Amino acid sequence: MTTEELAPELRQRDVALVDLLDRLLAGGVVIAGEITLSIADIDLVRISLRALIASVSSLVDPGGSDGGAAP
Amino acid sequence: MTYTWLYAVAPAGPEPSPPKGAPGGVADEHPRTVAAADLLAVVGSVPDADFDSDALQRHLGDPQWLERAVRAHHRVVSATATGGRALPVRFGTVYRDDDRVRALLAAHADDIRAALSDIADRTEWGVKAYLDRAHPDGADDAGSGADRPAGDRPGTAYLLRRRTARDRAEHALTDAAGQARQVHLALSGLADRSTEHPPQPTEATGVRDPMLLNGAYLVHRSRAAEFARTVEALRARHGPALRLELTGPWPPYSFAALPTAGDGAR
Fold first, then answer.
1. Where would you find this protein in the cell (chain A) (predicted)?
2. What is the secondary structure of B151-201 as a DSSP string?
3. What is the number of CB-based contacts under 8 A between chain A and chain B?
4. pLDDT in the model for residue B92
5. Domain boundaries along the sequence of chain B
6. ipTM given for this complex
7. Which residues, numbered 9 to 48 in chain A, qualify as contacts with chain B under a Cβ-Cβ cut-off of 8 Å?
């Protein structure tokens, strides 16, 4: 994925993303609908999130390695 | 063709729920309202090709799409649900059309009203506690290991020191976990309701210190200042070994539940 595109938005808001996901994926009222995310979908989101976070923290914390993103 | 994405539900009142300049939604659409049974649903029209269950599943595997959608959902909910006026709806709730939304509002009107009154005039706050490894209560400088008799072999002193260091780290963790419990209890005492999310893994926080508390607290407006002061006081009492982080105000995501449907949904 293009970490470069993510960076500007995440710079100011990356802290909240993980908190947001805690709340958005498990919280909010459920009104039996037609297309609602199932538990399996939530797992998919977590995997996806992990990929996202991994790319973010390598951006934020240059301590790991400085390869990764193109300049 | 479009589907109808649901963001929040509010009582039909004098102020129309989504302000005119409301932010764009999950499909960059302009959120609008659908009314039924004295309730307003804040909804958006989203392209069905992107939001049927297969497409949605594909999108969820795309971190960038996911982040954009989650943030958009949150923006619309926040614009609507400030001050405990609206009930946030679970991310990913999509209906075939507006009529379906009206039908559901009417069918669940009593439950929705009950859930709305639970969160009225209340706000969610988040408090996370980390063990701050940079401040292990000065244990590392105590020097007790250095004067220990070395015994017969030089390796023994080293092994003892290693074990002592490990024991101390474990002790610090247990101790901090106990303090995190106290923090949660103290804050729960000021909240109408409280809950805990699973501690976020270090790979998700980007913080190396382990998280010992990921609490959420539903606090009445009249107690918001007291809550903030209490967090400050707890920070002073338990720091620096325990580091507290306050987030919010949040829409009451963690406390939005219909009285009857709650159990199966979790």
1. Gas vesicle
2. -SSHHHHHHHHHHHHHHHHHHHHHHHHHHHHHHHHHHHHHSSEEEEPPPPP
3. 149
4. 85
5. 2-120, 123-250
6. 0.79
7. 9, 13-14, 16-37, 41, 44-45, 47-48
